[in-house]
Amino acid sequence: MNRKTLVLPAVIGLLAPVLAACGGSDSGSGGGDPIGVGTTDRFTATKDAPAPLDPAFAYDVGTWNVLRQTVQTLMIQPKGDGEPVPEAAQSCGFSDSGNERYVCTLRDGLKFANGDAVTAADVKYSIDRARAIKADSGVFALLSTIDTVETKGDREVIFHLKTADATFPYKLSTPVAGIVNPDDYEKNKLRDGFDVDGSGPYTMKADVKNNVLVDAEFTKNPNYKGSLTVNNDKVELRSYDDADAMGTALEKGDIDLITRTLSPRQIQKLSNESGGSVDLVEMAGLEIRYLAFNTNAPTVKSRAVRQAMAQLINRSELVSKVYGTQAEPLFSLVPATITGHSNSFFNRYGDPSVTKAKSLLAQADITTPVKLTLHYTTDHYGSGTKEEFEDLQKQLNASGLFDVTIKGALWDTFRPAEQKGQYDVYGMGWFPDFPDADNYLAPFLDKDNFLGSPYDNSEIRTTLIPDSRREADRLAASGSLTEIQDIVARDVPVLPLWQGKQYVAARDDVTGTAYALNSSSTLQLWELGKGVSG
Known about the structure:
By secondary structure, this protein is an alpha+beta fold. It has helices at residues 9-20, 61-70, 120-133, 168-171, 243-252, 264-272, 303-312, 315-322, 344-349, 354-363, 384-398, 411-419, 442-445, 458-469, 478-491, and strands at 4-7, 35-39, 43-44, 75-76, 85-86, 89-94, 101-106, 146-152, 156-161, 202-209, 212-220, 234-239, 257-258, 278-293, 327-329, 370-377, 402-409, 425-430, 494-507, 510-511, 529-530.
């Protein structure tokens, strides 16, 4: 039957430590056809991004979801929610009271998929490599608090940090901290193409056509040793051009499950239907969408222009028209469900008001209407993006204060152009690297930020971000985090729009779908199996 399942994050969080502790990889579901998983993520090797799957470069949810199956990390985020637990490591922890020295001991007998031993030296090599390459994706910034990496014997790794960082265990659970074999990954050069090797739960075979990964076959790694239980022998991840093609493949039985990205229409249809062989699983999500600004661009260099946009945009109307119950208005970069969230944009601007926006522009002597182009990606965040930007255009132009046009581009064109500063205003989404407020602020506001944004607030970078990271109790960091969010609402280098839910649609003989994604949108293929239809 077609049923809608609500996963309760709090319950999952309570169960996760127990489930993660089960460990092992000996409970595969046996032979047979691979479990087929569909996605609309595109994996393309281009001149600007020739190494999309190198852990030292990859920095989007799609490529990370490939790496998490294949490249092992010292720590891992549990299947539901909660703090990271050891994965390649047997144990990890701060060895000082100031959160500046972090020590990990590797599991005994750890091996890469090819049989080579995984040593502390390999961990150091992998971390130092990502930090030294400094790929223009900006992913290396996740490791920015590391000063030096030390090894002691074959199994002990010691991280000396520049400053206290209570979020460091989370960062060691991200693919940029993945352990790679020095024989496969050169020290000072990215690994071009789609080959991936590691010590994770699967090995991967890529089917590539015209520099695009169209199919990835994940096979259970017999040498895997970690905290995960692998419930299948093989999974096939297939990339589709759009949500409709992916949905058709699911209905026909060509694939068994789809995650990213169902269209709003598909979700609504599956939510309302009863009967049939496809189930919809709904779970809380931490995805956000926002507008970003090149604050050096003449059209939006004035803070008043950005503030006026913040004053005009009606998030509730936008969400209602495009996404319905699948999203909620967001008034900060930090989602409402994350400790440290503050409704800073609502506190500053209140309800949408043309009068207030007009006053902001007049006080800054800005001639109206302000001409702008809003750029968006046509293929990376789902089919609703175009409609979303059409509504933003309509809202801004209806005020009479803006003359907005919109322009879409494929992700492999959009992302390099954004990084090079070619867009004044552009739409982006964010799936957290880990579920902490720091990861919704530092990647956008710190030095070497993900966006390559020229916005630089010294108080945020030198005082507030470091202060927040000193607090192991994240609730105690709320003061610094709130100050950051208030500054962002005042200066508007980014403009948050909405927070979304997560969905999985699967044929009803697929098991483990409630854990197919965790709270950070990590695809957990090892949780999937084939069971009895119900």
